[in-house]
Amino acid sequence: MNNGAISKPVKKRIVILGGGFGGVYAALHLEKLLACAPEVEICLVSRDNFFLFTPMLHEIAASDLEITNIVNPLRKLLRRVKVFVGEVEWIDLPNKRVVISHGHHKYDNHSDRLEYDHLVLALGSVTNFFNLPGFAELALAMKSLPDAIQLRARIIRCLEEANSECSLGGRQSLLTFVVAGGGFAGVETVAALNDFVREALQFYPNLFERMLRVVLVHPGAVILPELGENLGHYAQKVLAQRGVEIRLNTRVTNMIENEVYLKDNPPIPSNTVIWTAGTVPNPLLSSMPCEKASRWRLPVVLKRHFPSRPSGCLPPLAAGQASRGFSASTSRASSRGGYGAQFT
Length: 344
Ligand SMILES: Cc1cc2nc3c(=O)[nH]c(=O)nc-3n(C[C@H](O)[C@H](O)[C@H](O)COP(=O)(O)OP(=O)(O)OC[C@H]3O[C@@H](n4cnc5c(N)ncnc54)[C@H](O)[C@@H]3O)c2cc1C
What we know:
10 helices, 21 strands, alpha/beta, binds flavin-adenine dinucleotide, five-stranded parallel sheet, FAD/NAD(P)-binding domain, 26% helix, elongated
């Protein structure tokens, strides 16, 4: 493993970590703001070389869209920003540098150090199964492009398997799809999945609609809590009309290969459980030597810099998962009163 350093030019360097909504919109904003400031270099580091439009991820899982419809190459989107594709391994706040590994094969994988003057954190969140037994091993997440592709493949595999004459005994669990979590991601996923499997049935001579079960499990009294009760009730009515079973005021507790267990409810035989019920801020944030709010979130103040930071450091700027729910310049963020990262 080579430990290279990407030397810092005489310029001021702003490093943005993360190429999702927070990172890309920060980069676009900075590109405009600093168009006439050639002494400032903007560098965006992300795992993938594309921006993923997550609100349409479920449409990949349900075969409604092709992958290229929801990804946008970062290098096309950002003309002035230097794009660095790699995995952020470590944020060294006291020395103002980040360690990034890259390279695909085990032989050419190595890490580089990238120095910065200002840092923008937009690494998003990661799926959290809250250590519920069986979920990390057996449930499917719905957060990344590979997750959506995997879900689509799983649905098709279940339909194929259930259609075969010899799978009579396992048909019920093969044809029962459970989504845990009634927020945006869960509701969008269950709706798309439900349409997909019902439309696909016509191609499977041994399968009928009465055999299908699509279940949404939500711990609250009404789904889509971000939208308020009226819209939540409306969404529930529409989903129920389309054949989705909605289990409210309960939560999944554990799962085995062909069964998922619910609190105070009978278990559901199912081979496919999709988890959209929890995320936590990116674990890299928990390693940073600065004040944390609940669940490793970083508290931010109005100008988006941390109230506490190691002395001698310029304030890093926080976009993404911060304690007040400022997540990105997306409709969801604005519905919660959030707005994009601001820079001084
Ligand atoms: C299925 C689904 C549906 C959704 N629907 C909606 C919706 O309808 N409306 C809405 O407003 N919101 C929706 N959301 C939520 C929305 O996607 C998030 O609020 C938004 O993506 C958060 O933006 P972010 O920039 O903080 O994080 P992200 O968009 O997750 O970006 C984080 C970026 O950091 C990169 N990264 C992370 N760790 C590393 C690392 N160690 N090294 C390098 N790169 C790294 C990731 O690859 C990614 O590019 C949905 C989410 C999902 C999953």
